[in-house]
Amino acid sequence: MPIGELMAGTSGTPAAKGVPLQADAHTVASVPGAPASGPGADGGAPGASGAGPGDTATATATAGNGTAGAGSAPPVGSGTGLRLSGVARVFGQVVAVSGVDLEVPLHSRLSIVGPSGCGKSTLLALICGLDEPNEGTIDVLGATASAERLRRCAWMPQRDLLLPWRDVLGNAALALENQGVRRRTARQRVGHLVERFGLAGFEEKLPHQLSGGMRQRVSFLRTLVAGKEVLLLDEPFGALDSITRADLQGWLRTALDAEPRTTVLVTHDVEEALLIGERVVVMSARPGRIVAQFDVHLPNAGSRRELIRHPEFAELRDEILSLLEAVA
User: Fold this and answer.
1) What is the 3-state secondary structure (H, E, C) of 81-122?
2) How many C-beta atoms surround the C-beta of residue 40 within 10 A?
3) pLDDT at residue number 66
4) Distance (Å, whole) CA 320 – CA 296
5) Which domain holds residue 181?
6) Total count of domains within the chain
């Protein structure tokens, strides 16, 4: 495998230059409303029924049929995207999270940090309807039933979980196919987006021929074209090396600026939380509770290096790290 050639697309690519998906005529076309009820013609992922957090092809790309067109951003508006009130989840004798109150404004970005095992990923599963709380209520764009929450959310986990027999276009198009779009049409639609995601020239490459960073770009493209209003990102860069991770943090920030969604990011990386989130929530050790929230006000422009050297960034990072040490 020509590693040097493939890694060239990981850093310094012209991805997410600020052209929102809804401006792409090939992307905003409406799609048939019938959900996929089983594997695709080539053995693609099943529908969302019974999905677990690890089923990327399911929870990320096919969580029902929302009202937005395939790949189009939901209408811009104001109000609340997510609301959790008094949420608790218990597994046997273990209290995973307790008394969680959260509100995420529409099209804003929230980062959640906390010690390992504090229930961060549990909250994502609860938000998107893959699990139900023992106490409290969860509202996602007005929906409280688990099936309706699932329809409004797309989940991107730490592992890209690309289907090894599908090329870049085939993996990215999976979300559209599971919404009823014909395979050829779905490939054409995502084909118009690959350059913006730093994947031009790799459309027909299989996952094993891609670098880790490029695989994550494919995973994020698949997540975004699902057209869901709510994006749940569960340590999406946790398995990457530090150089690729830093590159993709800046890239994701730019992509979400260009294509606003109501976003919840779970991470152990405080710098990542501050770079991507507009607000950072700190959780305690298990049972996970919210112990602090920090608003993030950083310049909209600037490189990652410039941002992390910003005085407010350094102050927030040190304060959050000190708090994490205290609650661990």
Assistant:
1) EEEEEEEEEEECCEEEEEEEEEEEECCCEEEEECCCCCCHHH
2) 19
3) 37
4) 12
5) 3-327
6) 1
User: CA–CA separation, 170 vs 285, rounded Å?
Assistant: 40
b/e map 145-176, b = 16+ CB within 10 Å: ebeebbbbbbbbbbbbbbbeebbbbbbbbbbb
- What would the pLDDT profile of 11-44 be if each residue is shown by its tens digit? 333 333 333 343 333 333 322 233 333 333 333 3
Angstrom distances, CA of residue 78 to CA of 104, 218, 278: 11, 30, 16
Here the tokens at position 43 are 């053995």
The residues facing 135 across adjacent strands are: 88
Mean pLDDT of the chain: 78
Q: Which residue has the tokens 């020509």?
A: 2
Residue 287, phi-psi category: left (phi > 0), alpha (psi -120 to 50), beta (remainder): beta
Q: What angle do CA 267, 212, 209 make, to 5 degrees?
A: 160
DSSP state at residue 60: I
Q: Dmax over Cα atoms in the chain, in whole Å?
A: 54
In angstroms, the CA 204 to CA 207 distance is 10
Distance (Å, whole) CA 326 – CA 328:
6
Give per-residue pLDDT as tens, 139-179: 999 999 999 999 999 988 878 889 999 999 999 999 899 88
Res 299 pLDDT > 70: yes
d(CA 105, CA 304): 25
Return phi, psi of residue 203, to 5°. -55, -35
Three-class secondary structure assignment of 203-253? CCCCHHHCCHHHHHHHHHHHHHHCCCCEEEEECCCCCCCHHHHHHHHHHHH
Distance (Å) of CA 322 to CA 282, 315, 325: 11, 11, 5
* pLDDT reported for residue 10: 30
Q: What is the CATH number of the domain that holds 212?
A: 3.40.50.300
List C-alpha distances in Å: 242 to 6, 8, 136, 245, 247. Answer: 18, 16, 38, 5, 9
Residue 281's nearest CA partner among 142, 149, 100, 116 is 100
The two structure tokens encoding residue 241: 């090396």
